[in-house]
């Protein structure tokens, strides 16, 4: 949306009166009121211009008139605002470390940010502001020294596990009717300040520490397969955002029953098992390494490490169907390399030793069974249960027995 003030300034205030312009600009500056639905960026020059126009208007207006008095008050307010918006220090350090946050000075002139400390707008054009490179906490330079919340990044690094009880409330009385974070007095009646519950921690917070942000709650996903975003406090929001891609959920242990109820999970588990079976091909194939095939999994590298750890992002994408699509595609690309495109990988296929018929088999083919002891691959119908003896294993046993008896004969001879 085009900034109304810019239009006005560009047209050199032709269509509307100076008085209307001043009223408009004043309203915006003093009350942070959006004009035509958007906040308008005012730089220090525009503010100075408004002050000059104000001064000129005071001289032009009839002495002691109501309008003149009103303009004087406006002039005072505009000057105070200018003072307030000017940076206290011009050359502030680029990096500041506070309570384990690593604050880096921002160059962006965006004005859509809100300070996480004082909850007011950051005027990027004229104010210095910092963002923590670890947890993305944003803050005015002037608010930096007032911060009392440690960086949640360190919590993610040191203790990366989720609260897995659904909204574990302890009650406002146990919190002494105070915000769980900053200890400001709060109550459910809103006196002296509104108590807002965080669905992740179950605790209550004041409106400075809880902005009614929403997030998917891991406990609700794990126990109810429920993905509706719930209201959370600022620090939970930051923590959950940082934890989102981390594979810390061992579904099989936390809620094994999920696999009985969620079909998509079974499908993903099979795809992941196949990808693990394909991994040995790729790490021994120069071509696959050069093509960086495994990197197609992007930020889901845990899929080539194990098949039972999930990140919350994985579960969200499983529920939306996104993961099934992308993983099936990757599975197809991987299988194509091994079975069709690459001679080296193809040569590592198996002939079913039980029927000695049919195509070359690979362990990730859907109609195969793999011997748990020697990893030989057979048709599933040929190796249909555990009572079938694996010919490769049988040969190995025979060989061992032969070597052992040979050894005994040698020992007896001497
Ligand atoms: Zn601030
Ligand atoms: Zn931080
Ligand atoms: Zn608070
Ligand atoms: Zn290959
Ligand atoms: Zn067979
Ligand atoms: Zn075997």
UniProtKB/TrEMBL annotation:
Transmembrane segments: none annotated. The keyword Transcription does not apply. SMART domains: C1, DUF4206. It comes from the Eukaryota. InterPro entries: C1-like_sf, DEF8, DEF8_C1, PKC_DAG/PE, RH_dom. Residues 100-151 form the Phorbol-ester/DAG-type domain. One of its GO terms (molecular function) is zinc ion binding. Keywords: Metal-binding, Repeat, Zinc, Zinc-finger. The keyword Repeat applies. Positively regulates lysosome peripheral distribution and ruffled border formation in osteoclasts. Involved in bone resorption. Belongs to the DEF8 family. This is Differentially expressed in FDCP 8 homolog. It comes from Oncorhynchus mykiss.
């Amino acid at each position: 949306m085009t900034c109304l003030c810019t239009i006005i300034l560009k047209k050199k205030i032709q269509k509307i009166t100076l008085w209307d312009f001043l009223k408009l600009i004043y309203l915006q500056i003093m009350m942070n009121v959006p004009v035509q639905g958007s906040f308008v960026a005012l730089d220090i020059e525009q503010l100075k211009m408004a002050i000059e126009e104000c001064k000129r208007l005071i001289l032009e207006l009839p002495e002691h008139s109501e309008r003149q008095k009103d303009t004087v008050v406006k002039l005072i307010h505009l000057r105070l605002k200018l003072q307030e918006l000017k940076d206290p220090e011009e050359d502030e350090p680029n990096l500041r470390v506070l309570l384990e946050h690593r604050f880096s000075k921002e160059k962006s002139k965006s004005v859509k940010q809100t300070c996480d400390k004082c909850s007011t707008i950051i005027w990027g054009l004229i104010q210095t502001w910092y963002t923590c490179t670890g947890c993305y906490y944003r803050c005015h330079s002037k608010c930096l020294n007032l911060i009392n919340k440690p960086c949640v990044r360190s919590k993610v690094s040191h203790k990366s596990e989720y609260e897995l009880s659904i909204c574990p409330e302890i009650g406002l009385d146990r919190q002494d009717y105070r915000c769980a974070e900053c200890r400001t007095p709060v109550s459910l009646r809103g006196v002296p300040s509104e108590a807002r519950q965080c669905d992740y921690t179950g605790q209550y917070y004041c409106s400075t520490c809880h902005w009614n942000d929403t997030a998917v709650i891991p406990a609700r996903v794990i126990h109810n397969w429920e993905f509706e975003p719930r209201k959370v406090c600022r620090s939970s929001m930051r923590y959950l955002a940082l934890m989102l891609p981390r594979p810390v959920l061992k579904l099989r242990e936390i809620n094994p029953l999920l696999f009985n109820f969620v079909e998509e999970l079974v499908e993903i588990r099979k795809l992941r098992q196949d990808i693990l079976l394909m991994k040995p091909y790729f790490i021994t194939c120069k071509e696959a390494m050069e093509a960086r095939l495994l990197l197609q999994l992007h930020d889901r590298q845990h899929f080539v490490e194990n098949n039972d750890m999930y990140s919350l992002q994985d579960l969200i994408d499983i529920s939306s169907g996104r993961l099934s699509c992308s993983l099936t595609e990757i599975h197809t690309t991987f299988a194509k390399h091994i079975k069709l495109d690459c001679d080296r990988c193809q040569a590592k296929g198996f002939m079913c030793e039980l029927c000695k018929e049919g195509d070359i088999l690979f362990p990730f083919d859907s109609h195969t069974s793999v011997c748990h002891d020697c990893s030989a691959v057979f048709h599933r119908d040929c190796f249909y249960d555990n009572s079938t003896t694996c010919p490769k294993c049988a040969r190995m046993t025979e060989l061992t027995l032969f070597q052992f008896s040979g050894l005994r004969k040698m020992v007896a001879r001497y």
